[in-house]
Amino acid sequence: MEPGTGMGLRGRSGILSLVDACLKETPAAERPLTMLLGPPGSGASEAHSALMEHFGPDHPFAFVNFSGTQSLLPRYALGLLARQLERKLPRYGRSHFPLLSLGLLASDQELRMRSLAEGRRAVQRQLDRFQEENEARYGDYLAAFFDVGMGALGMPEGASTAALALFQDAVRRGRRSMPGLFGGRNRLTAGAHWYGRHPMTRSGDPMEALVELNLWRHEGDADEQERLDLVLFSAFLEDLRRNTARNFMPRSYLLLLDNSHTDQGRCFLDLLLRARHDETVVAGHASDPLTVVASSNRWLPRWGPATGDSWPWQLRGPDRASLADWNTYRPTRDSEDTWWYPLRLRDLNLDEVRIRIELQLGGRGDLAPLTRLTPFVHRLTGGLPRAVHHVLGALRQSGPPPGSGPEQDRWLRTLPDRPLSIGESTATLADTALGHLLRDFDGTERATLAECAAARDFSVGTRLLSSGDALFGEIRSRWLLSGPLTVVPVLHPWLRRLLLWRLARRPDAWDAAHELLAEYYRDEGRPVQEMYHRLALGRTDEVTAHLTRRFTAVPALQWIAEFGAVTAAPNRLPTDRGPLELLAALGPGRTGRAMDVESVIHTLVTARWVWSDPLADPAMRLNDMIADGFTQLSQLRRTDIVALFNEAERHRHWRDPQTAGGEG
């Protein structure tokens, strides 16, 4: 298997080829700022790790996690990134960052002076002393930034051993002392002249420009401190251009920025984007040689409302990402939006889930039989990568009965309540998963969210069962709704399943939510949605009567669609029984009468209702019963029976329609 295309980038190979193309472009070529977007657990951190593993051995790269244990100022992030990019590689010379180092040093410690003129005379002496103190302590100046930014250097989750080794090599502390300030006074003078010529410094005098940076840092207002950050970013980009202009140097540098939705992450991206735009578009300089892959599980405020209506970009899928695609769809260069390349990470399809299960469980003889549970895991999780990982962890740690039979069915029925240990902490699978997906939501908000999850159309649920639109907006901005191609806003199936599992423990709240929703849809004249919620309340006879009336009133194909929509309703059936026991408890609608349309439909409704819940019928044992029911209906209907036959065959020879995934 090719490195970097296994657990992290399987199903996302377009990201790999996109980064490869960016790294091979000429240094002055324009490159996108690629954003990996999706809910927590959608695989962005794994993608960072896989990119690190694939490109790290041969290309300079740097990684920062903006959700680390400490707040990371832009200057510290630049120092951390530059220090990692200095790593010596066999194919290339060592990269240096003299302009950035000088700007950081000149603005770091407050210069002691009584006037600007005095500061100009004293700046060289004080900068020399600052550098000597740092080199005596750390070995080189940029290494000092590891002390203040180590909390941002945690490896991405799911990182491989190979990626970990590469990362440790990139961040290890060398003790490379350089003579004088960045190679002596000539280097200082050359760097100072660059700052003196920069359009954002007011003084054209090189030394006074450095003093100006210092004053901005220690005495400046918010605008001046932002100006300082922009100048430092400009210095960083100029250092990169000068590095690539030398012989035996890389064409591009790879930056991996995880969790960029945080305050410090957004600030860093804003500064980087503005610095690139100012230099490339406004000033007309050659573009910088940065290949940037950032990730975010929030909609960024700078893009406007989370509806996306006012943003010129349309989300792209990761499978066919490419430079050509970016250049085709990017907005015009007069806007900073032209640099984004937003990729909406999709869930794993059935085949990709199967490969993950085989890789994680197939190597252990005692767990190998569990690889048969691939369709169950895919149906349960919707293919969310972190959810698949959590479910496999619970299966691996708790050890369900290996045989595919009633005992295993009953064990899987309560899977959300099974323990899952991660590190030193242990909680139920449901608590672990909800804690990850709904971080920052308190208990009250989660309870409200569970009630809103009763509605398939989440916008209707929040409108009827919560106060205001804030909850809907928050969920949408966190990418917790199903993919962008979904017309109706539906919670991600894994999140919704867990919330409904929680709601089922509150019978009164369950009944109240579904009663309210059923009445709403009745008043709206939408009987399919009304019956969906009547079935969630357990009113199988009422639902059967409705579907029996519809059976001869509409074409068979339409009836099958309505039947499928209604019987997809959630349930709060007992959690200590397997599918056949659950079905037996629901019982026939009527007794003592010969088989007729209504009795067949009642059996079909109850069987399909149980079957629709992967926790209730993990092995889809009710497929044959459902197939028999459609066959019986075809015999009871004189015309228009082909669709009923086809539906019977579909269940009898079930093949998941999501075997192959697509965009979105």
Describe the structure using short key phrases:
mainly alpha, 4 domains, two-stranded antiparallel sheet, elongated, ATP binding
Give the SSE layout.
Elements: H1 13-24, E1 33-37, H2 44-55, E2 61-65, H3 74-85, H4 98-108, H5 116-138, H6 145-149, H7 161-171, H8 185-197, H9 206-219, H10 222-245, E3 253-258, H11 263-282, E4 290-296, H12 323-329, E5 340-344, H13 350-361, H14 374-381, H15 385-398, H16 406-413, E6 419-422, E7 425-428, H17 429-437, H18 443-452, H19 458-465, H20 470-477, H21 493-503, H22 507-523, H23 527-536, H24 540-551, H25 556-566, H26 579-586, H27 597-611, H28 623-636, H29 642-652
Parallel strand pairs: 1-4, 1-5, 2-3, 3-4
Antiparallel strand pairs: 6-7
GO molecular function, one term: ATP binding
Protein name: ATP-binding protein
Keywords: ATP-binding, Nucleotide-binding
Provide an overview of this structure.
The protein is built from 29 helices and 7 strands. It has 4 domains: 13-112 and 120-176 and 186-344, no CATH class; 350-426, no CATH class; 440-525, no CATH class; 542-659, no CATH class. Helix content is 53%, strand content 5%. The radius of gyration is 30 Å and the shape is elongated. The relative contact order is 0.09. The longest helix is centred in the middle third of the chain and has 24 residues, at 222-245. The chain has helices at residues 13-24, 44-55, 74-85, 98-108, 116-138, 145-149, 161-171, 185-197, 206-219, 222-245, 263-282, 323-329, 350-361, 374-381, 385-398, 406-413, 429-437, 443-452, 458-465, 470-477, 493-503, 507-523, 527-536, 540-551, 556-566, 579-586, 597-611, 623-636, 642-652; strands spanning 33-37, 61-65, 253-258, 290-296, 340-344, 419-422, 425-428. It starts with 12 loop residues before the first helix and ends in a 12-residue tail after the last helix. The strands form 2 sheets. It has a 5-stranded parallel beta sheet, with helices on both faces. Strands 6-7 form a two-stranded antiparallel ribbon. With 664 residues, the protein is mainly α.
